[in-house]
Amino acid sequence: MEPWYSLHWFDRALWEQFRFANPLALYLIPTIGFLFALRYYLQHDSQQRLNMSLGTGRGSQSDRIQEDPVLVNQRLVSLLRFLLPGSLFIAMTLLLVALARPQLVQTHREEQSEGIDIMLAMDVSSSMTEADLPPTRLAAAKRVAQTFINGRKNDRIGLVIFAGEAFSLCPLTTDYALLKQYLSELNEQMIPASGTAIGDALARCINRMREPMNATQDSTESGKKRSKVIILLSDGDNTAGNLDPVTAARLAKAFNIRIYTIAVGRAIRSSASASTVDEGILKTIAGIGNGSFFRAADAGRLRAVFTQIDQLEKAPVRTLVYEDVQDQYRVYLYWAISFLLFALFLKNTIVGNVLQD
């Protein structure tokens, strides 16, 4: 911070940053100037003057001033009579500036959000290698899931993969870079067991999202409870696993976990491939889990589905605005006092006595 006697306080750039608490005081400054001009006009007309001839009368007045340096010095000395009223005017102006209370305000915005918990359940079975969503169903799902993660803030996101078995690949975390790295490494060979265990995948997600008893009590006492969501991507064929998907969905509902299911791909029946998309079980799971079912028959629709889920599952954000207000009126009050003292000093000198007569 600059000292009060620094000329920095009269910098134009600084004045543009000021916010005045009492801006009406600034409108009195022209009034002060008008009063000083009126006083000078009345005093100038009422003074009696005795004109004296100090020259020979030859040549113009400007020629005589240029020829006589004494007259030049007298003219300069006579200008000192404006020091006293000028000091008073500046002092009163600065007093009005101080009364207007210039302030430097720094605004800080802070966004607070409790966030939500999201578990991504990704099917990595051999049926996800179909190319109806180019290049493959799994590759398209990975790419869109990474884009979905990029748009989340303050949310904890985890990852479960499943085929004939289900494994928790990444727990709930806010380390989105790590999560996207796991997604990029997904392939159909990670789980050798064939089949699609949707029920086991839901159970893994529920187990990751269950809160300990003490954490549940703390959240209930504080009145805040994080929302929990499962997003399951699969072709819908539940052909493996130890837990029925309907039972797992009911368990999720008991834990207040909402389930969104996405059927990835189109039904394909050919001599080379006999892959089907079972929408029935995915619709049932979503209905029990108080969520929604989506069909993603192409990459564009898959992106639209994730965009819709992103809009549906938004935690409320509270924006807190802090203002750091620094009053700077003391600086201009000190300057005003300094000019007043200077005016009092001039009043007791030749400038305030002889030159004013």
TrEMBL record:
Listed Pfam families: VWA (PF00092)
Residues annotated as domain VWFA: 117-309
Organism superkingdom: Bacteria
InterPro entries given in the database record: UPF0353/GerABKA_families (IPR050768), VWF_A (IPR002035), vWFA_dom_sf (IPR036465)
UniProt key word DNA-binding: no
Keyword Cell division assigned: no
Transmembrane domains' residue ranges: 20-42, 82-100, 332-355
Keyword set, alphabetical order: Cell membrane, Membrane, Transmembrane, Transmembrane helix
Cited PANTHER family: LEUCINE ZIPPER PROTEIN 4 (PTHR22550:SF5), SPORE GERMINATION PROTEIN (PTHR22550)
Name of the protein in its database record: VWA domain-containing protein
Organism per entry: Spirosoma liriopis
